[in-house]
């Protein structure tokens, strides 16, 4: 065994090895940022790959020789693209504007303006439900992935799930070779199921390799990876509009994530909790050497698995905790329900606002890009407030303010366009901060032993919000204010529920369910003793009087 010299006067406790933000965390955060960017692009591929396309009905008698989208012989009157104009019986060999009657019939074939999206190649004209089903199927796949990804991450580790999900996204290449709609949708579903656990694995790993001061920074970097992925994807689609070429650009880079087998490191906390003592020691030594943290290396190497768990305040060493153990704790159940609802509300409102932004005038690529850019100031604001004020209070006020802004946006007449636009942009900025803030907060609320499973459940509820968000424009057919009122109501309820959860700023990550219950019991006992003391003081004061 190697013997290391230690400077006793400037020695850092082993349990604080990861507290300092150093070169190790920066390198791992860069790897995680790149991976988040790549997986985000795959998750939103259908926005442009299956984007809307202009088309018209094909008239076989007139389209035999030249199949143009805007022919000079097309009738002058406006015709629904799902209807076919009927020719007169006395039409000559050449069609012109007067060759048609005023009657129409259902269209069976279409002429597309271009083949930039799958609508043309899969012949999805006048079948909007099929087009929308591509994105919905992807969201359903993500939801299915959330059901098992958390458990797999707790069982096999953060790093293996991280790499598997990213590299598995390469299956998306197969979509470029299919001519059948149902096969295309099946590949979309399989791709989403494989990649769906990536967000959870990346975010949890980033949190667990840092200290109390860096957890929120890790969450913001993770969120920036998502927003940057959205922005980069808009640029990709602008310069590579043809969907098959765009798929190649999207799904080729993730193959290089295989190199992460050598560069990415596993979470030491997961290694300790799961009895990977030797691997945990290697990781902790690497962190201390990379960050120039002076720890007693000989002491670390001589520690047993039990000693390491005690050093990092990881208790309940004898038995691994399961999801069933977590569900026996009222406090864990309360945190899970509130955290899951808050993530659902953030996801639903975030993507709902993003989807409804298409009604804004301008180029679709530019609008999508600007919607993504608006998320950056929200995250920067969340980073500052959650680090300096607190996680809980920032999220409580953030959700409530977002809800009030959404409701206020329907209180002004349509003539005040600039006011409504301002409310939209500020709402988008605020909900962006809540969107990433609640991810960081829920990770801190759940214990390490079942964190992956509980985060997976919370991510699953967030995916439900992602599935429902595309339906929000339909709500405007019932009432023009219903969508905004729904966004506002959900946000305010989330803010009120979060008042029932604890503050986690500057707190160490909890590792076991038993530890959470013991802390809650201690807090309740302290509160009762304090109240009892106040009652006794009041009684004594009355006696003296």
If you had to describe this structure to a student in words, what would you say it looks like?
- It is elongated and about 100 Å long.
- The longest helix has 32 residues, at 513-544.
- A two-stranded antiparallel sheet has the order 1-4.
- It folds into 3 domains: 1-41 and 126-319, MFS general substrate transporter like domains (Growth Hormone, Chain: A), CATH 1.20.1250.20; 54-113, no CATH class; 321-511, Up-down Bundle (Growth Hormone, Chain: A).
- The chain is mainly alpha-helical and 545 residues long.
- It has helices spanning 23-43, 46-49, 118-121, 128-156, 158-168, 181-195, 198-208, 215-239, 243-251, 260-263, 268-273, 277-290, 297-302, 305-311, 323-327, 330-356, 364-373, 375-388, 391-408, 417-445, 451-468, 472-475, 482-497, 513-544; strands at residues 55-57, 83-87, 100-106, 110-112.
Task: List its traits.
single chain, 545 residues, mainly alpha, Growth Hormone, Chain: A, 3 domains, elongated
Taken in chain order, the helices and strands follow as HHEEEEHHHHHHHHHHHHHHHHHHHHHH
The CATH class assignment of the largest domain is Mainly Alpha
Number of helices: 24
Cα-atom Rg, whole angstroms?
28 Å
Short description:
This protein is mostly helical.
What is the strand and helix layout of this fold?
Layout: H1 23-43, H2 46-49, E1 55-57, E2 83-87, E3 100-106, E4 110-112, H3 118-121, H4 128-156, H5 158-168, H6 181-195, H7 198-208, H8 215-239, H9 243-251, H10 260-263, H11 268-273, H12 277-290, H13 297-302, H14 305-311, H15 323-327, H16 330-356, H17 364-373, H18 375-388, H19 391-408, H20 417-445, H21 451-468, H22 472-475, H23 482-497, H24 513-544
Antiparallel strand pairs: 1-4, 2-3
